[in-house]
Amino acid sequence: MKRLTLKLKLTLLYTFFMLLVTCAALAILFSLSNRELLATVQDRLTHRVQNSADAVILRDNVPAVETDFYSVESDVYLSLYDETGYFLMGRIPHGFDSEPEIKDGQIRKLREGNTQWYVYDMSFRLSADQTVYIRGITSVTDAKTSYRVTMRFALILLPGLTLATAFIGYRFTRRTLLPVRRITDTVQEIRADADLSRRIGLPESGGKNRDEIYHLAETFDEMLSQLDEVFRREKQFTSDVSHELRTPVSVIIAQCGACLTDETLTEEQREQICLIEKKAKEMAEMISQLLFLSRADQGRQPLEMEELDLSELTEMVVEERKFLIREQGLPVLLTSEVEPGIKRRADETLYIRMLGNLISNAVAYRKPEGQSKIHVSLTEKDQCIIGVVEDNGIGIREDALPHIWERFYREDAARTKGSHSGLGLSMVRWIVEMHGGKIRAESRKGEGSRFIFELPRTEK
């Protein structure tokens, strides 16, 4: 199940609480409004009846009313009764067919069918010996119907209000978290291309809207600048030190060669000088690799691209390595299976170095006993050139596989045959990627390893 994003979580949380507050407010409002509605209806009824007393007069000692008495105001119908409860004049609402007993000063709720009514009677003395009753009748059901229409209208608006709240909340949250998204994208880009010069670069706000996230982005940019400077100095230091070491190491190798020409040396002295020369050459190779990677980091390692027959070049590298293996007397069987006629634009020197490093790595991590086997293959499939260097050596632990491309990383230095600096695979990966390809490793501890590089048929 796909995990919810932070934007969606905050939007749902914001919408939930807004909906909860709105529903609670509407529930309280409707509850209070219902009571207020009934109180208002009763108040209108009593006021209308009381005010209508001015419209009741005596004419020729007979009760009479003015024209306003017949008008229906505030949905209140008025009628006039004598002391015995006999109807004299006025208006009775349609649907009110009963003739309830007159009760002075009381508001009563009566039901006629599906309609509820409020009835209010008030006595009024026209003269010293003559009293009449004014009755007011109003429909509670009609008032509640208007109230229900309002309530339904509010409930209809509620989903729209919820959607509007969710939309506004999402836009607000998205805008608020935009710097976080930019921070994430920047980190992913840095991880993808290892370019510490990238920055989040939020727009200047002139002191406005500089919230915690904005300051976080600024802090992140400052940290990137410091890291970039640290790595730049480290690269420069590596380059400078490598350059400075080349001369003394070259002098050591030259002097060892000169000393070995002296026929007066004892066998023990000759062995010691040979050991010094061997270690100096290993140091020279490491310096060469460091210089290569340093130039690559600084973008100063050129690629001399030309049309090459990779099949012939691969066979040539394999034959050269076979000769070195025989010369060193190593128990290693190196074989190859190369599809002929595979051509592509590439840097000849770097391709030889890449393939040579892979074979050298397989030789270095061979098994301590018995004959080791290394097989090199090169094929073309689906417009892709696939090269494989496979061995039956000591293998690599699964948890170590992601780290083998790191500089100076060696899974088990104690079991490495000969001198191995841990820089070879870093160079291999860089060379493959600079040719637009990719490389991966497959291995099982104790069973051997397979390094597979893939190059697109055409140069990218």
Number of extended strands: 14
- How many separate domains make up the residues? 3
Strand percentage, roughly? 15-25%
How many distinct helices? 8
Query: Within the largest sheet, what's the order of strands?
Result: 4-3-7-6-5
What's the overall average pLDDT, rounded? 81
Specify the overall morphology: rod-shaped
CATH architecture grouping of the largest domain: 2-Layer Sandwich
Span of the ends, CA to CA: 37 Å
Please estimate the helix content: 40-55%
Largest sheet: 5 strands, antiparallel
Uncertain spans, ≥5 residues at pLDDT below 50?
Answer: 414-418
- SSE ordering: HEEEEEEEHHHHEHEEHEEHEE
**CATH topology term of the largest domain:** Beta-Lactamase
The radius of gyration computed from the alpha-carbon positions, rounded to a whole number of angstroms, is: 49 Å
Q: What is the SS-derived class?
A: alpha+beta
Q: Given this structure, which CATH class of the largest domain is correct?
A: Alpha Beta
Chain-wise SSE layout:
Layout: H1 6-51, E1 56-59, E2 62-65, E3 76-81, E4 87-90, E5 107-112, E6 115-127, E7 130-139, H2 140-176, H3 178-193, H4 212-260, H5 267-297, E8 305-309, H6 310-328, E9 332-338, E10 343-347, H7 348-364, E11 372-381, E12 384-391, H8 424-434, E13 438-444, E14 448-456
Parallel strand pairs: 9-11
Antiparallel strand pairs: 1-2, 3-4, 3-7, 5-6, 6-7, 8-10, 11-12, 12-14, 13-14
Helix pairs in contact: 1-2, 4-5, 5-8, 6-7, 7-8
Tell me about this structure.
The protein has 460 residues and is an alpha+beta fold. The protein folds into three domains: 165 residues, Beta-Lactamase, CATH 3.30.450; 123 residues, Orthogonal Bundle (Helix Hairpins); 152 residues, Heat Shock Protein 90, CATH 3.30.565.10. The chain is built from eight helices and 14 strands. The strands form four sheets. It has a five-stranded antiparallel sheet. A hairpin with a 2-residue loop joins strand 5 and strand 6. Helix 1 runs antiparallel to helix 2 and helix 4 packs antiparallel against helix 5. The longest helix is centred in the middle third of the chain and has 49 residues. The radius of gyration is 49 Å and the shape is rod-shaped. It comes from Merdimonas faecis. Keywords: Kinase, Membrane, Phosphoprotein, Transferase, Transmembrane, Transmembrane helix, Two-component regulatory system. It holds the Pfam family HATPase_c. It is found in: Membrane.
